[in-house]
Amino acid sequence: MLIRPANTLALTLAFTALTLSAQDRTASLLQRLSDAAGPSGFEEPIRKIMVGEMKPLASSLRYDGMGSIVATQGTSGPRIMVDAHMDELGGMVRRITPGGYLTMQMLGGWLDAALPDQRWTILGSKGPVSAVTGIRDVHLVPPDERTRAVSRDSIFLDIGAKSAEEVQALGVGVGDPIVPDAPFRIMNGTANYLGKAWDDRVGCAVVVEAMRQLQSAPHPNQIFYAITTQEEVGLRGAHSAADLIKPEIGIALEGGVVGDTLPAHPEESQAKLGAGPGIFLYDTSEVPNRKLSAFVRAAAKNLNVPLQLDLVSGYGDDSAEIQKSNAGVPTVNLVVPVRYTHAHNGIMNRNDFDSLVKILVDVLQHLDASTVARLRDFTPE
Predict the structure, then answer these.
(1) Could you say which residues of the chain have pLDDT below 50?
(2) pTM
(3) What angle do CA 273, 277, 278 make, to 5 degrees?
(4) What is the distance between the alpha carbons of residues 260 and 2, in angstroms, rounded to a whole number?
(5) Strand pairing of 102-107 and 90-96?
(6) Cα(345)–Cα(193) distance, rounded to whole angstroms?
């Protein structure tokens, strides 16, 4: 066991305090949201943070039967649903072996390559427990196996225990939730923020900042901000939240994907980090309403804010469930591009974030009754 020298620990704490004091309110919010634990079905910690942020800004706040938060601003006009999901990728303890190792049930769409030799936190009954996904030592692996991906069926968690009894003594049991251990960092003085769970804590933060601006600004509608649960395991919270809200227009806010890393695959994604927020013109779960998409693109143009267009296969989001609710709802998916989604460490860009807030606020201020009626009109011309 490595003990960090006291002087080194003091320097680390001082550096952390200095970094935090230099951050603005939004960076602090993004850090708290990214660092919070909340895998699908176990969203309590992130729900508590979001309620604390949203309640002072809302005219009302309630929950649906799936645990999603529904906060409102405005009491008349068209019903606009703004959605972001609070759950993150994670796992659950599946089995405790006699030797004190754990196997894991993954929650959400993990890449197998992202799982080995990573740090995790188990939310046990006695508090958080540190863990690492074990990996076979390179000195023991035959040369012809060293380049092969490790299957998730071979992944195990090591918490330093030597027996099942020691595991239980630490407060860890079957079914306990597991989240990545990947603390927030501002990357080397840049506008890029490193952290876990940008899918979709970045959307949650967009909601808070938009609510803050619209608390005192006029808007011609009723805005229902839905912070949903269990998106990563089937868009479940959006379904129940839309049932409750019965929206006329739906706007999903998500962490997008980028194609600017190496090796480049331009047909997979055209978005770049730091080049502006994005709008999905297609994904596997939803084709957006064309008139609503054009409305958003016009808003960005009028604001002189860049808006990246993207079409991505192998991607699904809450707008798919909103679209199918209330006899059909015009929807669109707006994103803050993120590198390395569905892994421990993702990167978002603060300028992309701020620009999406700006576009969203403008769109919400112009969705009046006549505009919404036009967007919902499918009468042939």
Answers:
(1) 1-6, 8-22
(2) 0.91
(3) 100
(4) 38
(5) antiparallel
(6) 10
* Structure confidence at residue 22 (pLDDT): 44
Q: Is 280 helix (H, G, I), strand (E, B) or coil?
A: strand
Dig out the tokens for 228 from the structure: 């949903």
Tell me the C-alpha distance between 310 and 334, whole Å: 10
Q: Hunting for tokens 């706007």 — which residue is that? A: 251
Q: What domains can be seen in the chain, in order of their start residue?
A: 15-88+196-375 (3.40.630.10), 90-180 (2.40.30.40)
Q: Which of 43, 231, 232, 254 is catalytic?
A: 231
User: Quick one: tokens of 97?
Assistant: 């072996």
The pLDDT score that the predictor gives to residue 140 is 67
Query: Is residue 231 among the annotated active site residues?
Result: yes
Pairwise CA distance, residues 344 & 258, whole Å = 16
Q: What is the pLDDT of residue 16?
A: 46
**DSSP strand pairing (249-257 vs 331-339):** parallel
- The pair phi, psi for residue 331, each rounded to 5°, is -135, 165
CA angle 90–93–99, rounded 5-degree value:
135
pLDDT at 268: 79
Residue 116, CA distances (Å) to 106, 148, 235 in order: 13, 12, 27
